[in-house]
Design a protein that fits this description.
The protein has about 120 residues and is an alpha+beta fold. It has a single domain, classed as 2-Layer Sandwich (Double Stranded RNA Binding Domain). It has a 4-stranded mixed sheet with strand order 1-2-3-4, with helices on one face. α1 runs parallel beside α2. The chain is elongated and about 70 Å long. The N and C termini lie far apart (about 45 Å).
Amino acid sequence: MQTDIQARGFSLTDALQTHVHNRLGFTFLNASNRVRRVHVRLSDLNGPRGGVDKRCLVEVRLEGLPVVVVEDVQSDMYIAIDRAVGRAARTVMRRLALVSSRQRQVAAHHAHHLATGQ
């Protein structure tokens, strides 16, 4: 799984970069063979004025499936990262489970037809 982390409107600290890498590694551990690339864009919308303006956009590129894009805005960047990555992971897992379920149904359908000679 390739990762790309960008910060806009502020400097990306080592602590934030480590947090994103750790969170992605842990969260996508079970799906890492299907996740091709994860882009994370962090931005401070209001700059030094403060407020609920820390934005985390997560874009997950999966093998053979549509891109998953999730965004979260919070007053704390770490919370925005955790929430966006968590929501992206849940969406990815749902999509992968749906594909897996469909593949099992097709395989069972073919097996049934082979067994009954139809």
